[in-house]
Write a structure and sequence with these properties.
It is a single chain. It is built from two helices and 25 strands. With 461 residues, the chain is mainly beta. The protein has a single domain, classed as Porin (Beta Barrel). The strands form three sheets. It has a 16-stranded antiparallel barrel with strand order 2-3-4-7-8-9-10-13-14-15-16-21-22-23-24-25. The termini are far apart. The relative contact order is 0.12.
């Protein structure tokens, strides 16, 4: 028996030795090394390398909750408006960059989705709250019903000096940098194609082709007239399409003391009459100068903004309307019970096309009381001139002269979190025709004002 056991054990040992030798000859199958995400420091904080590539990526976003209280004006016997509104906005963005022999290659996409209720959905100013609505019934007759909007806020490719896609207009400078509620001044996001040349020492110049459709304010205001009062009835008008994009140029300098910019735009404006009488085609322009001054001698982060703009035929460059989804304003706006007409072009009583002239002055000051508490004070003064067309029939007022002034106080207890309150005041004067027996017999000047308050809680990440 012992002999049998010895033979069996010896055989097993021999088989094991042979098997081990054969296994040593087989190729090794070790686990593939794990490629951990690496920090990319070439473009600032928050970037990391996409595994397996040399592309640096940053993913971020925002959640904003906002609450508004403002006056309401419904008219006699009506109570359709809410005096308050609520809004929730979610934002996500992706920023991808590479270093190339031609400069930085950047791709940026930012999406916003917003749900608004109450007074956010009332009045004629749809993309930003009116100070008070007129009418106030929206969404199939439901007062203040919930409205959801999704917006491609940014989507562009930058390759060295070229920018192509959807971005902030290169005309813009202040662009609502400090305020919550709207004040006058260009703040438009449009489709564009641009070339930027840099000269060193912080100087750069940009030439851009920007979508005229998004810069236009599409109403055409017509002076009242009829054969009965010796003035021709010029019929109905619409604003015509453009033959070329808006041509925008800017010269910018950014240095330790702050920054400054000169901007200009040239564009085409057309009117088309149903009768053919009064149709027109004119070239308009806009000019703007702005400066931002850093004030560290007061407190770290303090800054002063000053801006002035003038336009003929392009009032979106002043902050009056704009067809862009990224525009701060919609077509018409309200101040109290005044409905202000916004129009790039107007037709006088003889059917002649006129470009609307106007200017806007904007200022803002930001001060840090402590590293976590800051306050901004800002305002705008603007005036439009409809030339011979000094007013309109009905409730629509023209030639507005308007003041807007406001202040917000913001607490940032932790990085990325803002809790702020704002009070904003507007005062406007407009002109409209007084009529008797169906004929305009004089001009009436109306004025009104309104207050608005907001609470905003915002987290950026």
């Amino acid at each position: 028996m012992k002999l049998v056991k010895s033979l069996l054990l010896g055989s097993a040992a021999g088989i094991a030795a042979v098997a081990g030798a054969q296994a040593a000859d087989l190729p090794s199958r070790k686990a593939a090394p794990v490629e951990y995400v690496r920090v990319c420091s070439a473009f600032g904080a928050g970037f990391f390398y996409i595994p397996g590539t040399d592309t640096c990526l940053r993913v971020g976003g925002r959640v904003r909750a906002e609450y508004i209280v403002q006056q309401k004006f419904n008219g006699v016997g009506l109570d359709t408006q809410d005096q308050y509104g609520m809004r929730a906005r979610g934002r996500i963005y992706i920023d991808a960059r590479n270093q190339t022999a031609y400069g930085t290659l950047r791709t940026f996409v930012r999406l916003d989705t917003t749900v608004s209720t109450g007074s956010y959905n009332q009045g004629t100013n749809g993309s930003a709250p009116a100070f008070s609505g007129q009418g106030g019934i929206t969404n199939a007759g439901i007062p203040g019903a919930s409205g959801t909007s999704s917006n491609l806020d940014r989507a562009f490719v930058q390759f060295g000096p070229l920018t192509a896609g959807r971005s902030q207009s290169f005309f813009d400078f202040y662009a609502d940098a400090l305020n919550y509620g709207p004040i006058r001044g260009s703040d438009n996001v449009v489709n564009l194609l641009a070339y930027t040349a840099t000269f060193g020492s912080g100087f750069s110049a940009t030439l851009a082709l920007e979508d005229s459709n998004e810069h236009r304010v599409g109403n055409v205001v017509v002076s009242p007239g009829s054969a009965s009062n010796g003035q021709p009835n010029v019929g109905n008008f619409i604003q015509g399409g453009s033959d070329y994009p808006d041509l925008v140029g800017s010269l910018n300098v950014a240095q330790g003391w702050g920054s400054a910019q000169l901007s200009g735009a040239v564009f085409q404006r057309k009117t088309i009459a149903s009768t053919g009488f009064g149709s027109g085609d004119k070239t308009g322009f806009a000019l703007q100068a702005g400066v931002k001054i850093n004030l560290p001698m007061l407190a770290a982060g303090d800054e002063l903004w000053l801006q002035a703009a003038y336009a003929e035929g392009g009032i979106s460059y002043l902050g009056y309307g704009g067809n862009s989804q990224g525009s701060t304003w919609s077509g018409n706006t309200n101040v109290g019970r005044l409905l202000i007409a916004n129009s790039d072009a107007n037709i006088d009583v003889f059917g002649s096309m006129k470009l609307t002239k106007g200017y806007a002055l904007t200022a803002g000051f930001l001060h840090y009381w402590t590293p976590t508490i800051r306050q901004a004070v800002y305002g705008s003064y603007s005036k439009l001139d409809y030339s011979n067309n000094i007013g309109a029939l009905g409730n629509v007022g023209l030639d507005p002269e308007e003041w807007r002034v406001g202040s917000n106080l913001i607490w940032s207890p932790v990085a990325g979190l803002d809790i702020g309150v704002e009070v904003l005041y507007a005062n406007a004067r407009v002109k409209s025709f007084v009529q008797a027996a169906g004929r305009p017999v004089g001009v009436l000047t109306k004025s009104d004002d309104s207050f608005q308050g907001r609470l905003r809680v915002q987290r950026d990440f």
